[in-house]
């Protein structure tokens, strides 16, 4: 019997450009849980806080729902997709209106327990 070793957390409609969030997510993909939290606390980008909350939430899901240890978790998959864009008009001089676009994104963080998988290579931790 093969046991499911993955848990995930979704963040939808986060008010941020997907391009800016991908810049942070690319830095944490494949890293361990503790290392990811340290990296996200020290990075100076605005995207770090919602991603930090998602990683923390996914780890809480892993420990509460599946009884995984937080020390054995790695980020197996992290992706950012574009969400809807809210379009508004800002009034300008002479009765004109300039468009304002507020982008949003959807972030998915998947954690994997490496103690339950035999094929994981421990040299890369």
Automatic annotation (TrEMBL):
GO molecular function: rRNA binding; structural constituent of ribosome
Chief site of localization: plastid
Location in the cell: Plastid, Chloroplast
Pfam families noted in UniProt: Ribosomal_L22 (PF00237)
Gene Ontology biological process terms from the UniProt entry: translation
Keywords recorded for this protein, A-Z: Chloroplast, Plastid, Ribonucleoprotein, Ribosomal protein, RNA-binding, rRNA-binding
Transport as UniProt keyword: no
SUPFAM superfamilies: Ribosomal protein L22
GO CC annotations, alphabetized: chloroplast; large ribosomal subunit
InterPro entries xref list: Ribosomal_uL22 (IPR001063), Ribosomal_uL22_bac/chlpt-type (IPR005727), Ribosomal_uL22_bac/org-type (IPR047867), Ribosomal_uL22_CS (IPR018260), Ribosomal_uL22_sf (IPR036394)
Job description of the protein: This protein binds specifically to 23S rRNA. The globular domain of the protein is located near the polypeptide exit tunnel on the outside of the subunit, while an extended beta-hairpin is found that lines the wall of the exit tunnel in the center of the 70S ribosome.
Family: Belongs to the universal ribosomal protein uL22 family.
HAMAP family xrefs: Ribosomal_uL22_B
Subunit structure as annotated in this protein's UniProt entry: Part of the 50S ribosomal subunit.
Protein's UniProt name: Large ribosomal subunit protein uL22c
Annotated organism of origin: Rosularia alpestris
Lineage: Eukaryota, Viridiplantae, Streptophyta, Embryophyta, Tracheophyta
